Amino acid sequence: xxxxxxxxxxxxxxxxLTYKKAxxxxxxxxxxxxxxxxxxxxxxxxxxxxxxxxxVDALDDIPSGTLFVRAHGLPPQTLEAAKxxxxxxxxxxxxxxxxxxxxxEKLTAxxxxxxxxxxxxxxxxxxxxxxxxxxxxxxxxxxxxxEIRRARRIAxxxxxxxxxxxxxxxxxxxxxxxxxxxVFNTICSDTQGRQKSAQELAGEVDTMIVIGGAKxxxxxxxxxxxxxxxxxxxxxxxxxxxKRDWFSGEERVGIAxxxxxxxxxxxxxxxxxxxxxxxxxxxxx
Length: 285
Prior knowledge:
The chain is of the alpha/beta class. The chain has 3 domains: 2-11 and 189-283, 4-hydroxy-3-methylbut-2-enyl diphosphate reductase, catalytic domain (Cobalt-precorrin-4 Transmethylase, domain 1), CATH 3.40.1010; 13-93, Rossmann fold (3-Layer(aba) Sandwich), CATH 3.40.50; 96-183, 3-Layer(aba) Sandwich (Cobalt-precorrin-4 Transmethylase, domain 1), CATH 3.40.1010.20. Helices cover 40% and strands 19% of the residues. It contains 10 helices and 13 strands. The protein has helices at 13-28, 42-50, 76-84, 95-109, 123-130, 146-150, 164-175, 189-202, 217-228, 263-276, and strands spanning 2-5, 32-35, 53-56, 66-69, 88-91, 113-117, 136-138, 154-158, 181-183, 207-211, 232-236, 252-257, 281-283. A 5-stranded parallel β-sheet has the order 11-10-12-1-13, sandwiched between helices. It has a 4-stranded parallel β-sheet with strand order 3-2-4-5. It is flat, with a radius of gyration of 21 Å.
């Protein structure tokens, strides 16, 4: 068996910034709150919870102290309400997400209909939509095309972790029915790099192990991309989720990680496979 890691591993720079800022805040204060997990990785969430980062569902659940804005960002209305309540706000939104928020706000001010490609239930998408009142959110092509056909002067942005193939598919369909269109590919460069790396590796191996949170959009997309390339793909949160029978008769195994997955988890998966299969050979990317 040969085992190879995808070229890009460990935290993306946005998650790294958020993580370090959270560590700094919790080391200095004991009244730090976040509305939702700061990243979609249970190991990191548990670590920060143990260090005193309190996770709440709503602003009303924060009695006083600091609102720590997670990597996905928050709608501006929430930030304004937090400040009006007297909370100290620490904005740890990923810079790539902040850029998309500002772009959506600018395009809305220009009188354009903003179309956000992404999951309407994802916190990042909700945050972007807060900057673009009246935006259309699209994760799949709608059965009823009335709203998108009536829209004029459309400007498209996307969730930073959207699958690149889905982005191109939806943009193509919108372009087919609208004569005036501006398109901004706001998929994070790190996400695009991981997707390309996973796609290339999946074309060379039998099985892909994708490591990341089960609720992480970018991690799920890596698994989807791997399967589309013909590899069997398994999504795990850590090495303990591995099943030995997944690798029966397999000759090549690939390992990819999501943007909020710490690099040591890939090492642990590699170590587990090497322990199970002592004749296995690590291959450099």
